[in-house]
TrEMBL record:
Its main location: membrane. The lineage of its organism: Archaea, Methanobacteriati, Thermoplasmatota, Thermoplasmata, Methanomassiliicoccales. Belongs to the SLC41A transporter family. This is Mg/Co/Ni transporter MgtE. It is found in: Membrane. The chain crosses the membrane at residues 26-45, 81-104, 110-137, 149-174, 186-206, 226-244, 300-326, 338-362, 374-396. It comes from Methanomethylophilus alvi (strain Mx1201). One of its GO terms (molecular function) is monoatomic cation transmembrane transporter activity.
Amino acid sequence: MGLTALVIAGTADLFAGLLLDQMEDYLLTITGMMVLIYSAIGMRGNIFGAMGSRIGTAMNIGTFEMSLKRGTVLRANFDSAIALTLVMSVAMGVTTWAVALVFFGGKADVWDLVFISTVGGFLAGLIVLGFNILIAYAGSKRGWDVDNISAPLIAAIGDIVTMPMIFLSTWVFFKMDDLSFGDELVMFLSAAIVILTAVDVAVLLVRKTSKRNFSGEAKRIFKQSLPVLMVCLVFEIGAGIVIQDEQESLIAYSVLMIMLPAFLNQGNALSGMLTSRLSSAIHLGTLRAKWSPRGASNDFLMIYICAMITFLYIGIISYGACILFNGSSNISFVDSLAIIMVAGFLATTILSLLSYYVAIAATKFGLDPDDHSIPITSSVMDLLGSMVLVGVIALFI
């Protein structure tokens, strides 16, 4: 099931890579767009990957109910995901503006990046949320272990919808900017979104809860997830800086630009799949929270096998897509395949150890690994994965 989901995810990410390759004008016009894009992609996986992990655990322990009524697990995850999406989209816009200004001499106004981030992020979040519910529904009906499929599929869906939604919001921004009152309109709409975000969070935090059901779960998820997501944003921004710094090289080698979303997504998908399985095993008592990873050796082996197959597949289809859509590639097939396989092996080794020890550390500190493992491992892997890929590219090119 996991391998099938990873192959589907890798194929889907190809379209995200092709769209990114076509966004060259936007990337060059607005400084920091690469930072924003990869922060937004990473945050979709962090928020909704963790949601999928919680749903998987709820299914395994028998508390899940396929209902959006208040007091159910699904409704609690729905409400918290909306609030976290809004807050983190605003935070990404402001942070990207500051990073672009300090590191790359960006000249865009803060409201511009807040508008692009919040509109694109919220639209993408709604779509990913719908797919998350669909996966939960299919899993509950068919008796699937969604721990094996939710992380890869959600990560891929996040890539597929985030890129077009950021593209759409950027296109809308330029259309409004052409108007005589465009600057004022962007500022007004951005301020309205910030106010809406504050109201939504306030309603969530003051809502009455009951110990008889899961009505207080949304507040708990929000309070425990927000600090972790803010820390994760630092890693996502770091990954964006690494990629932004190599933007010219990536644009010059189209196959690498096409391959980039799929490579980073596979790291997120693999770590998410592993941490989801580990979290459920810890909750069920089939994995003890020990610092020695011997108890997870079978899971590690499964991840390595899945990784090598899917990275090979991504390398082949990325090169084929480059030839098909661009006519040629200025890097050989052997070199492009060697880059992704070497980088993939290194990234898999890092994510396997990272996923295990983050899940164990969360448990040791009395935290829910479902809330913390996926956001932390995904964000750290975005940074380390981008550094690994850039380093391997430098060795071959």
